[in-house]
TrEMBL record:
EC number: 6.1.1.20
Family, similarity comment: Belongs to the class-II aminoacyl-tRNA synthetase family. Phe-tRNA synthetase alpha subunit type 1 subfamily.
Species of the source: Antarcticimicrobium sediminis
Pfam families: Phe_tRNA-synt_N (PF02912), tRNA-synt_2d (PF01409)
Enzyme type, top EC level: ligase
Family annotation (SUPFAM superfamilies): Class II aaRS and biotin synthetases, tRNA-binding arm
Name of the protein in question: Phenylalanine--tRNA ligase alpha subunit
Gene3D superfamilies: Bira Bifunctional Protein, Domain 2
InterPro entries: aa-tRNA-synth_II, aa-tRNA-synth_II/BPL/LPL, Phe-tRNA-synth_IIc_asu, Phe-tRNA_ligase_II_N, Phe_tRNA_ligase_alpha1_bac, Phenylalanyl-tRNA_Synthase, tRNA-bd_arm
GO terms classed as biological process: phenylalanyl-tRNA aminoacylation
Name of encoding gene: pheS
Signal peptide: none
Cofactor: binding comment: Binds 2 magnesium ions per tetramer.
One annotated Gene Ontology cellular component of this protein: cytoplasm
GO molecular function: ATP binding; magnesium ion binding; phenylalanine-tRNA ligase activity; tRNA binding
Length: 357
């Protein structure tokens, strides 16, 4: 028995890998292993002999099994040490900028617009994209059969059969946030509300989901002159071009009176879009003095307060400022496009640091 023990413990100590250990296990304590065969001979022994040999064989079997397990653990440790030695990584090396993601132009322009209006004393308000029919239309003085509902190509949500409450809508503009903020905060107010909006429309300058930023200023003595000044300040700061040409056109919205639309001068040559030149115009915003009925719907007394509101197309601004000719590409998630038109994630736009670099 001493010979068996010496043989198997030496073999175990010398084993180079797991498969060698397994071969030793089979030869020693496997079903037909040497020690197992010896155990079978116990039956032929006298009871006295068996009393000595039985426990000794069992002890030997245990000893070999635990030697095998210890060697297996030692081999695994050694393998791990070897991997740690060969596969090390220097975490203090600089990152690879080419692999970095970029900010989408819509995010960039939203940041730029927010920075400019923050400087003018506007804070940011938000509202839901799935909106009640009342907030999106009625409260904005667009009653049930008003043609503006059809013009906006609204996406209606589904209602269960037999439920005849008006359906929710995907908001067609950010104007319902005017109502929600008036309800919550009352007057005076000075806010912008950036976010996604939806209309069933699709061509070079329209996508079914796009972005607007709403502006709203309410106080006791706000006039159309304040509106025009704020917008001109905004365009000068945003486009970073002296004397950029804008065109204020008299217009109509149910929720403002009087109303004006604003276009920016641009040219399209060989599929290239350029601002500040040519004889084309791109409409970028709608605006006006808040209709008294809208103030009332928001819980504000129109005899005491008045204000202006505007809604700017963020994607349109991005197209103009960064010369991006097709709006549809904004939402294709094409990595080459994103690398080309994207912005460095850590360049936060500020007025003093420069909006875009
Ligand atoms: N909500 C209008 C639109 O989406 C824009 C607008 C906002 C006009 C505020 C006037 C005042 O077209």
């Amino acid at each position: 028995m001493d010979d068996l023990k010496a043989k198997y413990l030496t073999q175990t100590a010398d084993a180079a890998d797991e498969s060698a250990l397994e071969a030793i296990r089979v030869a020693a304590v496997g079903k037909k292993g040497e020690i197992s065969l010896k155990m079978r001979e116990l039956g032929k022994m006298t009871p006295e002999q068996r009393q000595v040999a039985g426990p000794a064989l069992n002890a030997l079997k245990d000893e070999i099994n635990s030697a095998l397990a210890a060697k297996k653990a030692a081999l695994a440790d050694a393998a791990l040490d070897e991997r740690l030695r060969s596969e090390w990584l220097d975490v203090t090396l600089p990152g690879r900028p080419r692999r970095g993601g970029t900010l989408h132009p819509v995010s960039q322009v939203t940041e730029e617009v927010t920075a400019i209006f923050a400087e003018l004393g506007f804070s940011v308000a938000e509202g839901p994209r799935i909106e009640t029919d009342w907030h999106n239309f009625d409260a904005l003085n667009i009653p049930g059969h008003h043609p503006a509902r059809a013009e906006m190509d609204t996406f209606y949500m589904h209602r269960a059969e037999g439920d005849d409450r008006p359906p929710h809508v995907l908001r067609t503009h950010t104007s319902p946030v005017q109502i929600r903020t008036m309800e919550k905060a009352g007057a005076p107010l000075r806010i912008i509300c950036p976010g996604g909006v939806y209309r069933a429309d699709y061509d070079q300058t329209h996508t079914p989901m796009f972005h607007q930023v709403e502006g709203l200023a309410i106080d006791k003595d706000i006039s159309m002159a304040n509106l025009k000044w704020v917008l001109e300040e905004f365009f000068a700061a945003f486009f970073e071009i002296d004397g950029i040409k804008t065109r204020f056109r008299a217009s109509h919205f149910p929720f403002t009176e009087p109303s004006a639309e604003v276009d920016i001068q641009c040219s399209w040559v060989d599929g290239q879009l350029k601002i500040g030149e040519g004889d084309g115009w791109m409409e970028v915003l709608g605006s006006g003095m808040v209709h008294p009925k809208v103030l009332e719907a928001g819980g504000i007394d129109p005899y005491e307060y008045q204000g202006f509101a505007f809604g700017i197309g963020i994607d349109r601004l991005a197209m103009l400022k960064y010369g991006i000719p097709d709006l549809r590409a904004f939402f294709d998630s094409d990595l080459r496009w994103l690398r080309h038109y994207g912005f460095a994630a850590l360049d936060v736009p500020t007025l003093h640091g420069g909006l875009s670099r």
